[in-house]
Amino acid sequence: MTEPLARRLFAEGLGTAFLLAAVIGSGVMGLNLSGGNLALALLGNTLPTGAILVVLILIFGPLSGAHFNPAVTLAFAARGEFRWRDVTPYIAAQLIGAVLGVLAAHLMFELPLWQLSLKTRTGAGQWFAEFIATFGLLLTIFGCVRAPSAAPYAVGLYITAAYWFTASTSFANPAVTIARAFSDTFAGIAPVSVAAFVLAQLAGTALGVIVARQLWPARERA
């Protein structure tokens, strides 16, 4: 990438912050307006998340690649399409941005700023769901090699769908998972549940890289 690293890191942090503000904020709004109907609350959480992903990738893609996700950053590095020396700064920017996005959502809805979620998300089904969700996200991204302009819409639609076909509601992102532990709201996850989710996501990332290498070799992107 030709953009200076500092500019790319700012884009990654800002984009991830907006993503988490949308995830947490829409979860709060959806639950507030659903009248106790959890299906409506989840729908209210799903649509804004998928929509904001399209917008954020269109905005920040030309600057930083719009990863907003340590799994994506690691996957691009593993394919030789991203410099390993930039991986740690990218992940740090994503994590900081994610937490700031959660805090921004709390401020908007006048909730306590610092929280820890009490919502336990555990079990083999949810762990496997995170594995599948992340694997599918990587296939979606690398599957757009020949049509990169479609990537923002493909990613947004994939996450929208995966909210509903995975038992975990498709976190598929270690930074998102960690940040959501700091919000005791509809979209939160208890800190005790985070490690297993992240491990499942990293496993899905590894398989995604292996399969994508067979289907869409990195040299085709070049």
Automatic annotation (TrEMBL):
**Keyword Membrane included in the entry's annotation:** yes
Report if keyword S-adenosyl-L-methionine is assigned: no
| Membrane topology category | Multi-pass membrane protein
InterPro entries named in the record? Aquaporin-like (IPR023271), Aquaporin_transptr (IPR034294), MIP (IPR000425), MIP_CS (IPR022357)
Q: Which residues form the signal peptide?
A: none
Q: What is its main location?
A: membrane
Q: Which UniProt keywords apply?
A: Membrane, Transmembrane, Transmembrane helix, Transport
The lineage's top-level taxon is Bacteria
Q: Name one GO molecular function term.
A: channel activity
| Protein's cellular compartments | Membrane
From the record, give the transmembrane residue ranges.
9-31, 51-78, 90-109, 124-143, 186-212
Q: Name one GO cellular component term.
A: membrane
The entry's family comment says: Belongs to the MIP/aquaporin (TC 1.A.8) family.
The protein's name is Glycerol uptake facilitator (Major Intrinsic Protein Family)
